[in-house]
Write a sequence for this structure.
């Protein structure tokens, strides 16, 4: 095919064409990758929040694209500044026909403002319109619950001094907040005990094989959260119920899994994973979470359970139990509800019980 002189020349002047080809290929490939990175950005870029000392691997890593997505309901939050009362301002009790007695001491302007906003926050347009609506009865205790949260649980809901909670923290414009939970139903009447809570695809277990009753045991019944201890079992009497068992361990991990999902974090947000048992190596967030466990128990026992006879049957769970609060009810999968937004400065009426203090 090729002229003879060419074959002769090639055999007399051997050339290594692979070297240059590899070089050109590599350089060309690198240029292509660089061009793609410039045009696409870095879709898989991650950002880490360091939670512990350097070198211990304690960081919560997330895709930058996820971090950039704020809680979509935060943008829809509406707040209205209070109207500082002037001497002689008419009180709601006399000025507003049919005013809710518990809020009667507010000035008419602040009454309208608060009730109007509570209707928006809960998505119930006729809230406080009349006694026959059970929602009005529920709302009374919800106001006390919110005041109690801001007044007595500041160490959790307002540690930063600029957060706090109001109705919107849980409700987000809906009568029934998302992230409530119920007792789980046994698989059948014949199953009870451990078999009926383990290996079930339930929301409570995050669809893992871990026990589904962790929220009930720890956020309602107040059972001790514990895993196996570091002592030898031989010397212990495991039958007296005081030593944590393997089942307690699994239930604890089920709760911890729930914490992670409720806050959108991982375990090292609160623990040093080399020593889960060592409180001394935990982060400050662990202490804030520890406080939340007692807080949520109180919400469920003192405020939700008494609504048993007030809520209509369609609001109750399959076991006939009231909806209950968990970390998810406020946090909704985010480290801080609504990104730590200020929910109380505009609402002295909900900040504490008693006479509101207007600035
Ligand atoms: C910590 C979370 C939380 C906060 C804060 C909160 N609520 Fe609720 N609320 C709940 C839960 C949980 C329910 C039970 C849902 C149901 O009724 O099925 C509920 C139910 C209600 C209901 C009954 C809704 C229905 O249709 O059954 C009303 C009304 C209500 N809340 C009003 C308020 C008002 C007003 C505020 C603020 C003063 C408030 N809530 C603050 C968690 C909260
Ligand atoms: C939001 C903070 C938080 C996150 C996230 C968290 N934990 Fe915990 N963890 C706690 C708190 C608070 C306790 C202590 C509860 C108590 O004793 O009252 C605890 C207790 C434990 C215990 C029991 C320790 C003991 O001495 O008995 C283990 C084990 C544990 N967590 C493991 C985990 C694992 C595994 C993860 C990740 C899946 C995790 N935790 C995520 C806050 C957290
Ligand atoms: C009544 C609403 C509410 C409930 C229920 C709730 N939290 Fe919180 N939590 C908050 C608020 C509000 C903040 C932000 C406080 C601040 O920034 O001052 C917060 C902050 C935290 C923080 C600190 C986050 C950070 O960025 O440092 C942790 C950890 C936490 N919560 C864990 C929990 C756990 C675990 C539960 C369930 C056992 C829980 N919370 C239940 C309202 C709630």
């Amino acid at each position: 095919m090729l002229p003879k002189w060419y074959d002769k020349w090639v055999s007399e002047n051997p050339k290594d064409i692979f070297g240059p080809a590899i070089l050109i290929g590599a350089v060309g490939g690198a240029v292509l990758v660089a061009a793609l990175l410039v045009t696409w950005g870095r879709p898989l870029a991650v950002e880490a929040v360091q939670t512990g000392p350097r070198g211990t691997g304690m960081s919560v890593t997330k895709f930058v694209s996820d971090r950039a997505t704020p809680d979509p309901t935060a943008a829809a939050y509406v707040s209205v500044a209070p109207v500082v009362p002037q001497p002689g301002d008419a009180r709601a009790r006399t000025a507003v026909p049919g005013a809710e007695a518990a809020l009667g001491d507010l000035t008419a302007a602040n009454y309208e403002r608060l009730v109007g906003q509570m209707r928006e926050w809960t998505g119930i347009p006729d809230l406080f319109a009349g006694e026959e609506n059970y929602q009005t009865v529920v709302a009374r205790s919800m106001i006390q619950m919110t005041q109690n949260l801001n007044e007595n649980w500041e160490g959790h809901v307002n540690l930063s001094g600029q957060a706090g909670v109001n109705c919107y923290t849980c409700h987000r414009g809906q009568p029934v907040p998302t992230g409530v939970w119920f007792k789980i139903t046994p698989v059948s009447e014949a199953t009870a005990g451990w078999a009926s809570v383990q290996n079930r695809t339930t929301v409570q277990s995050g669809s893992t094989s871990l026990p589904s009753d962790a929220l009930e045991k720890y956020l309602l019944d107040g059972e001790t959260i514990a895993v196996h201890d570091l002592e030898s079992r031989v010397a212990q009497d495991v039958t007296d119920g005081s030593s944590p068992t393997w089942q307690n361990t699994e239930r604890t991990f089920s709760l911890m899994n729930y914490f992670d999902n409720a806050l959108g974090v991982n375990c090292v947000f609160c623990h040093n994973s080399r020593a889960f048992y060592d409180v001394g190596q935990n982060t400050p967030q662990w202490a804030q979470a520890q406080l939340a466990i007692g807080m949520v128990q109180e919400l469920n026992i003192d405020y939700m359970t008494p609504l048993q006879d007030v809520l209509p049957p369609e609001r109750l769970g399959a076991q006939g139990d009231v909806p209950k609060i968990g970390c998810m009810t406020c946090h909704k999968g985010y480290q801080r509800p609504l990104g730590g937004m200020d929910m109380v400065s505009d609402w002295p009426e909900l900040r504490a019980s008693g006479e509101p203090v207007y600035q």
Remarks:
- The chain has a mean pLDDT of 90.
- Residues 316 and 322 are 5 Å apart (CA to CA).
- The pocket of heme C (ligand 3) is lined by residues 149, 156-160, 163, 165, 169, 259, 263, 285, 288-289, 292-293, 296, 325, 327, 329-331, 335-337, 340 (CB under 6 Å).
